[in-house]
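Please complete every field before forwarding. Incomplete forms are returned to the sender.

SECTION A: IDENTIFIERS
Entry label: holo-220
Bound molecule: fe (ii) ion
Molecule representation: SMILES string

SECTION B: INPUTS
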Amino acid sequence: MDNLENIVKPVIEYTKKNVRPKRFQHIENVVTLSHKLALALNLNPIEAIVSGYLHDSLKEEKSSNLIAIAKQYKMPLSDIDLANGHLLHGPVASLVAKSKFNILNKDVLDAIAYHTLGHKAMCNMAKVVFLSDCLEEDRDINYTYPIWISLLNLGKSNKKKFTKKFISNLNFNDYQLNVDKAILTACNQNIKYLIVENKIIHPQSIEARNYYLAKCLNLN
Ligand SMILES: [Fe+2]
Ligand SMILES: [Fe+2]
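SECTION C: PREDICTED COMPLEX
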């Protein structure tokens, strides 16, 4: 399937019937931001729309079902994956995207698969969807503010300035976007949250965080 434009409508319908309205609103917010970021970074906007709609299409699937589907597709599963099946909603959605919608575009498949845990050496589309999932307009500004500061390459700013309206009116062309630094900050924010909540940290998240740390420090 080369022409992703033809599957946008069925992809939207598929996702809409799989999730509750509140989740669908989150998904639409992610699509809005990933589309805007893709344009600013000269990436294919249709890839961003398709990846955005599919990223949480299986988020409300039971863990046991996600594990069963992953096994059907012979996906290698670690003990952490088996104990935290919900973390498979991205990788499994990526497998389903390939088989159900015949999506063969690796950037789109990776963007869907890696949106939750991140991954070392993500393609640009995966970075866009990962960041859009973290930064969509309904996220708490206390969580998103450090990520915005990194992405927009601002030394310091005023958190109060970052209202929903300010964020939705941002013109990314006015900024020197630092995507890798934003990924590192988002990984740090996510890991900090997991520590505070006493939740397990998947090794893939740690690997991604260390990769982007080294990249930002010019170590790799
Ligand atoms: Fe997700
Ligand atoms: Fe999401």
